[in-house]
């Protein structure tokens, strides 16, 4: 029983990692109606920038907002420079560009900062939350930050003009343009915000998994899984989805005999596909009705 | 960085790459190699780049045995099909004299049969599998580092002799590397293996953390924790096992003994007491701070591979193995052909290497193609590794 | 697309034989088609001569190029013709490769027989995978197939099947020699080249006929307008799952050939990078344009070598730059470029 509870708590802690990334996934989906396969590498690169600034001796709470800002500008610039010229190309061509960006960021990170793992300090401190607690200070802090980002995102999409305009631009670019929304600007803004949220995720994840160029390789997949499970249109769903993936994965790995340990990842993914078959829009997502 | 020449060369030979490099002297000895320079395993590429830098140094100093070395190294992205393609390019198009330090168990398994059929020496592979030491079946192929199985057996023996009522839990990476340790340990434990090993947990490199596995292993009530993991996961496992207050005797596979790249990120306090076996000096360990050989290595790195990572064990490894090749070429003498080089490589008699721990040497013979077969146990005291006990020789049977 | 109306009539009329040649194609024939045929004949002659001109290494490389081209052709049938995504075709390639390896090494069956078995097996696997995938569209299908690609190596090394698959160590295969006394004339590399060429030509012929058949037109109708297709009486579920099966069959046969040529299979050969490479090849060659598979395969075989020639430390980055450059030049791949060119000349 103790192991069971421990595994659930550990699952929630890893789930927070996935939830964080899932939020970035929802953000980009709201902006471009697609998944960005280079998103993880962009977050990893942002985290390296943070690490570099910390090495230079800047205090954490200066670095944190600075890196968010840099990442926002970076994401915005990538959309303007790389994607603007080919905005009319088919979706698959965009996917290939994602793959290209993936290779570029991954390669440059290794080239600039080497491959040895780097310890990124936690702003919340090391050790358990309280004496004998099963959850660490950093994990608790990570969950807290994830919830704050969730709240901000939800507010952004529900109450602000820009947020509403962005959603409109992604769902129906034609109509959005007719009502005076600058669709292409919205897309770039979405890229910037997704990149900024990715940076937050990267900086929170790195203290747990250690920073290296391949840090986000699999985490992004889990982030996708969490976001899709919860519903790509719902930030709350994405966060819940992230936590579910974390817990399910741990329980499957621990309790399914013989193949559980070896197939943790496939089992978790299988469950997600199963959920999607029953509820194609995800747990909290809205179904888009297609008109002919 | 890339230079102008190589850029132009690439442009000119976009599809059909020309054979030899441009400035190769006629009598240069051609050494071929494949490494993952791209993709998820590209950290290993540092070994290839260190070797390249070392051969550049040798060439700048006048070459070996009167000849320049032409080192041709290609990217295999850690993919066996790509390794086959690049190896065939090396042998059939570049016509290399020998292959050297090809990296990875799967890649070398893929090319082994072909290379032996072509009778090209396939020397000092960068993998710790035990299967490179089969002179009668594969007379062209030799290993270099101690095999993973040997190392696993060393820990097993020590545990049986020194731990009271041992109950062993193993965390292992689910690939050839992890499996080999498991085999080595189980074989050494013999019939007792089933009762002594109380829990095993494999993990995938695609996993973000191994926290869940460590928790399950602790719950088995084991008092010995054997960590067969690559650096990132080793650091996680050390940190986590300390965090949850698991008071087990912890053993760490040799690939992850780097103080700077594993133990420091995991935390010195958390790493205290970890036991491992070593054969190479460790770049970031303070005990070698004043070692003349390591000073020489640092000077080499500064001059010939300035953007190389001096905290990484791969650059030490690459330097050590390149020095071994230098020795072999010297022994083979002037005008040596592939056969002579193979003979020199397989008749080393207690050859010393400045990167090896004091007392460890390299020996090969007609029935023994495994150069390094000795290791010494060491325990981390919170700052540095402390060697203890005798040097353990595990000569192959 | 304009085509769907007409293909629909062909499909709904119920008789494949009576179905008229679609107007679009008939119009495109004439000048373009003779040019196409000339190019085809020249290429074929070049391909036949190649093994007698170049070194074994080049022959081997070209054989691998054809293998990847077949794999890309398979994906093209799914994405280009039926409009379904797959980021996981490496999985079917792996199934084909392991079929060859297990049959040849464990069961001692001749390599030629592994091709049909791999094809049928992959069709079944693809069809079964396609059934649930029916309910997943666009991004969800992308995720499901992405997951399949990532999980493939883990299935391959699963301990319970280790006896058959060789686990993490994989299986080494012995390369076949040329049969019927041809080995006096052809070495093993040359023979495998011709063998692959023959299989490739056969599959290409099959793919072309499929596209022109009633099934092909139904598949395209589903791609262009699924709802209209359904209302016209096309059983979309069966067709879509069948498309998955056929596509997997092509890619599986490619995997089977690949294993025989490389002489080795292991989980590390079939990582996510393989699925990505097949997808990149498809897009570079041009989605929906079958001959593009060859150009796409050339890209994924040669460009990584060029990238690492420029810089070892930044090999990945240069590969990325090349990719971006190609997409900028030809946003719709080589096929798109060609279409634009033909349209320009035709005016």
UniProtKB/TrEMBL annotation, chain A:
A Pfam family assignment: BPD_transp_2
Protein's membrane topology: Multi-pass membrane protein
Molecular function GO terms recorded: transmembrane transporter activity
Keywords noted in UniProt: Amino-acid transport, Cell membrane, Membrane, Transmembrane, Transmembrane helix, Transport
Subcellular location: Cell membrane
Gene Ontology CC annotations of this record: plasma membrane
GO biological process, one term: amino acid transport
Transmembrane segments: 12-32, 58-79, 91-113, 140-164, 185-209, 265-285
Family the entry assigns: Belongs to the binding-protein-dependent transport system permease family. LivHM subfamily.
Protein name, UniProt field: Amino acid/amide ABC transporter membrane protein 1, HAAT family
Organism: Albimonas pacifica
Lineage, broadest ranks: Bacteria, Pseudomonadati, Pseudomonadota, Alphaproteobacteria, Rhodobacterales
Automatic annotation (TrEMBL), chain B:
Family matches, as Pfam families: Peripla_BP_6
Keywords (A to Z) from UniProt: Signal
Region forming the signal peptide: 1-25
Coiled coil: none
Ranges for domain Leucine-binding protein: 29-381
Keyword Signal recorded: yes
Highest taxon listed in the record's lineage: Bacteria
Similarity comment: Belongs to the leucine-binding protein family.
Protein name (Swiss-Prot/TrEMBL): Amino acid/amide ABC transporter substrate-binding protein, HAAT family
Species of origin: Albimonas pacifica
TrEMBL record, chain C:
Main location: membrane
Keyword hit for Kinase: no
Keyword terms: Cell membrane, Membrane, Transmembrane, Transmembrane helix
The keyword Zinc-finger is annotated on this UniProt entry: no
Subcellular location: Cell membrane
Protein's membrane topology: Multi-pass membrane protein
A molecular function (GO) term: branched-chain amino acid transmembrane transporter activity
Transmembrane segments: 35-53, 59-78, 85-104, 110-131, 138-156, 190-207, 241-266, 272-302, 314-331
Taxonomic superkingdom: Bacteria
Xref: Pfam families: BPD_transp_2
GO cellular component terms, A-Z: plasma membrane
Range of residues in the leader sequence: none
PANTHER family the UniProt entry points to: HIGH-AFFINITY BRANCHED-CHAIN AMINO ACID TRANSPORT SYSTEM PERMEASE, HIGH-AFFINITY BRANCHED-CHAIN AMINO ACID TRANSPORT SYSTEM PERMEASE PROTEIN LIVM
UniProt name for this protein: Amino acid/amide ABC transporter membrane protein 2, HAAT family
Organism of this sequence: Albimonas pacifica
């Amino acid at each position: 029983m103790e192991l069971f509870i421990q595994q659930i708590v550990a699952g929630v802690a890893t789930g927070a990692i996935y939830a964080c990334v899932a939020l970035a996934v929802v953000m980009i989906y709201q902006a471009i109606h697609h998944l960005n396969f280079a998103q993880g590498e962009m977050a990893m690169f942002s985290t390296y920038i943070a690490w570099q600034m910390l090495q230079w001796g800047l205090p954490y709470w200066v670095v944190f907002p600075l890196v968010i800002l840099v990442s926002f500008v970076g994401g915005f610039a990538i959309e303007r420079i790389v994607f603007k010229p080919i905005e009319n190309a088919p979706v698959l061509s965009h996917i290939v560009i994602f793959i290209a960006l993936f290779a570029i960021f991954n390669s440059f990170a290794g080239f600039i900062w080497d491959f040895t793992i780097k310890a990124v300090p936690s702003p919340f401190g090391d050790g358990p939350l309280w004496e004998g607690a099963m959850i660490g200070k950093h994990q608790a802090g990570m969950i807290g930050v994830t919830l704050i980002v969730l709240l901000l995102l939800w507010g952004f999409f529900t109450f602000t003009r820009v947020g509403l305009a962005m959603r409109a631009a992604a769902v129906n670019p034609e109509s959005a343009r007719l009502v005076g929304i600058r669709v292409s600007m919205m897309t770039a803004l979405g890229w910037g915000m997704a990149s900024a949220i990715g940076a937050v995720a990267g900086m929170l994840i790195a203290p747990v998994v250690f920073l290296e160029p391949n840090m986000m390789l699999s985490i992004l997949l889990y982030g996708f899984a969490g976001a899709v499970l919860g519903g790509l249109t719902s930030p709350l769903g994405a966060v819940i989805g992230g936590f579910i993936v974390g817990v399910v994965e741990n329980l499957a790995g621990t309790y399914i005999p013989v193949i559980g340990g070896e197939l943790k990842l496939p089992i978790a993914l299988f469950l997600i596909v199963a959920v999607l078959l029953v509820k194609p829009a995800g747990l909290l997502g809205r179904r888009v009705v297609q008109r002919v | 960085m890339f230079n102008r020449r190589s850029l132009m060369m690439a442009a000119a030979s976009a599809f059909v790459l020309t054979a030899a490099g441009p400035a190769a002297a006629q009598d240069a000895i051609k050494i071929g190699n494949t490494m993952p320079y791209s993709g998820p395993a590209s950290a290993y590429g540092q070994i290839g780049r260190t070797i390249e830098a070392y051969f550049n140094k040798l060439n700048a100093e006048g070459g070996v045995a009167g000849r320049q070395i032409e080192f041709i190294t290609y990217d295999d992205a850690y993919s066996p099909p790509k390794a086959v393609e690049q190896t065939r390019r090396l042998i059939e198009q570049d016509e290399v004299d020998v292959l050297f330090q090809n990296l990875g168990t799967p890649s070398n398994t893929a090319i082994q049969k072909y290379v032996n059929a072509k009778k090209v020496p396939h020397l000092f592979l960068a993998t710790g599998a035990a299967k490179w030491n089969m002179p009668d079946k594969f007379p062209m192929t030799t290993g270099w580092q101690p095999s993973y199985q040997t190392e696993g057996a060393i820990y097993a023996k020590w545990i049986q002799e020194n731990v009271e009522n041992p109950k062993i839990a193993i965390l292992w990476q689910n690939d050839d590397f992890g499996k080999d340790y498991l085999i080595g340990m189980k074989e050494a434990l013999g019939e007792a293996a089933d009762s002594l090993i109380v829990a095993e947990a494999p993990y995938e490199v695609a996993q973000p953390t191994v926290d869940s596995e460590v928790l399950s292993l602790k719950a088995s009530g084991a008092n010995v924790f054997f960590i067969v993991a690559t650096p990132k996961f080793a650091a996680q496992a050390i940190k986590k096992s300390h965090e949850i207050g698991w008071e087990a005797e912890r053993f760490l596979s040799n690939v992850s003994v780097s103080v700077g790249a594993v133990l420091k990120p995991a935390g010195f306090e958390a790493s205290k007491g970890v036991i491992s076996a070593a054969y190479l000096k460790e770049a970031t360990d303070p005990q070698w701070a004043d070692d003349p050989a390591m000073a020489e290595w640092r000077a080499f790195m500064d001059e010939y591979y300035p953007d190389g990572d001096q905290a990484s064990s791969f650059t030490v490894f690459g330097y050590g193995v390149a020095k071994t090749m230098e020795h072999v070429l010297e022994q083979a003498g002037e005008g040596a052909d592939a056969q002579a080089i193979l003979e020199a490589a397989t008749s080393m008699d207690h050859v010393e290497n400045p990167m090896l721990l004091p007392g460890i040497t390299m020996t090969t013979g007609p029935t023994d193609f495994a150069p390094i077969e000795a290791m010494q146990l060491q325990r981390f005291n919170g700052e540095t590794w402390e060697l203890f006990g005798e040097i353990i020789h595990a000569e192959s049977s | 697309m304009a085509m769907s109306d007409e293909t629909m009539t062909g499909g709904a009329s119920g008789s494949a034989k009576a179905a008229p040649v679609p107007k679009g194609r008939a119009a495109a024939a004439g000048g373009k088609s003779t040019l196409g045929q000339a190019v085809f004949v020249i290429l074929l002659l070049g391909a036949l001569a190649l093994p007698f001109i170049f070194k074994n290494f080049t022959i081997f490389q070209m054989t691998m190029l054809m293998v990847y081209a077949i794999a890309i052709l398979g994906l093209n049938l799914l994405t280009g013709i039926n409009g379904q995504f797959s980021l996981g075709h490496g999985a079917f390639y792996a199934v084909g490769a392991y079929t060859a390896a297990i049959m040849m090494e464990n069961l001692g069956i001749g390599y030629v027989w592994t091709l049909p078995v791999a094809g049928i097996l992959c069709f079944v696997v693809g069809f079964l995978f396609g059934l649930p995938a029916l309910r997943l569209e666009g991004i969800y299908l992308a995720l499901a197939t992405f997951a399949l690609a990532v999980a493939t190596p883990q299935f391959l090394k699963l301990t319970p099947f280790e006896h058959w698959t060789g686990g993490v160590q994989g299986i080494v295969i012995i390369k076949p020699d040329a049969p019927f006394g041809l080995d006096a004339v052809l070495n093993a590399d040359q023979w495998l080249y011709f063998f692959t060429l023959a299989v490739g030509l056969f599959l290409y012929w099959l793919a072309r006929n499929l596209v022109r058949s009633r099934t092909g037109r139904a598949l395209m109708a589903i791609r262009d307008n699924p709802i209209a297709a359904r209302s016209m009486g096309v059983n979309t579920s069966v067709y879509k799952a069948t498309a998955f099966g056929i596509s997997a069959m092509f890619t599986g046969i490619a995997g089977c050939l690949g294993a025989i040529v490389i002489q080795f299979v292991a989980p590390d050969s079939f990582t996510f990078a393989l699925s990505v490479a097949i997808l990149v090849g498809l897009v570079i060659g041009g989605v929906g344009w079958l001959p593009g598979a060859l150009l796409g395969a050339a890209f994924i075989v040669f460009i990584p070598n060029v990238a690492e020639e420029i810089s070892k430390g930044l090999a990945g980055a240069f590969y990325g730059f090349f990719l971006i450059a190609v997409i900028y030049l030809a946003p719709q791949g080589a096929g798109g470029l060609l279409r634009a060119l033909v349209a320009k000349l035709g005016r």
